[in-house]
Amino acid sequence: MVRTDVGLWAVADGMGGHEAGDLASRIVVQSLDAIGTPESAADLLAECEERLFSANRQILALSHERQGATVGTTAAVLLVRDSYYACIWAGDSRVYLISRGAISQVSHDHSELEELIAEGALSREDVNDWLSNAITRAVGVADDPEFEVVTGPGRAGGCLRDLQRWPDQTRAGRRDPAARGYATRPGSLR
């Protein structure tokens, strides 16, 4: 989804191997698309977070209608407003920074493999032989979903402009780290 009028770009990718991933991703996109013009970057972030939690509740209701089937989607959202940016994500959809001819990953995957790598149990080379990679966070699979948030000031010459789905991702949290047990980490465009 692209909403340049608001400063919002988003990718939602239904969970493979589970029911109604296409519906789950559509719910996330429709929920985010309802965001109006915010007064500030902080307002945009707060509204985006609320819309993601609303989508989560809708997807859980869909799961209940389907006799408790697992229904979910990844989400990666980029917000840009008032010379600030925020990336919010859950799952393995990624956000990249393209700046001065270099591409760097802003988000990190919420996946079993990424957790094993972070713990030192596997190396990046080890995962090349793995056939599957289960995600550890998604929208629609828990009453209280965990998102990861990275925020920072924008800078001339830097542009977060590409959202793509890949097997690795990071987790995002709410601006208030105490809220819902999420973690946030500051970032900056370089």
Detailed description of the structure:
Helix content is 24%, strand content 28%. It contains three helices and nine strands. The chain has a six-stranded mixed sheet, with helices on one face. A three-stranded antiparallel sheet has the order 6-5-8, with no helix packed on it. α1 (21-33) packs antiparallel against α2. It is flat.
Q: How can the largest sheet be summarized?
A: 6 strands, mixed
What is the C-alpha radius of gyration, as a whole number of Å?
16 Å
What is the strand tally? 9
Order of helices and strands: EEHHEEEEHEEE
Q: Which percent band covers the strand fraction?
A: 25-35%
Overall SS class:
alpha+beta
- Please give the share of residues in helix: 10-25%
- What is the CA–CA distance across the termini? 25 Å
Strand order of the largest sheet: 1-2-3-4-7-9
* Uncertain residue ranges: 159-190
Label the overall shape: flat
Number of DSSP helices?
3
Oligomer: single chain
User: Can you give the mean pLDDT?
Assistant: 79
Outline:
Helices cover 24% and strands 28% of the residues.
Keywords:
alpha+beta, 3 helices, 24% helix, 190 residues, six-stranded mixed beta sheet
Give the arrangement of secondary structure elements.
Blueprint (H helix, E strand, L loop, with lengths): L1 E2 L4 E7 L6 H13 L7 H25 L7 E9 L2 E7 L2 E7 L2 E4 L6 H8 L28 E6 L4 E8 L18 E3 L4
Parallel strand pairs: 7-9
Antiparallel strand pairs: 1-2, 2-3, 3-4, 4-7, 5-6, 5-8
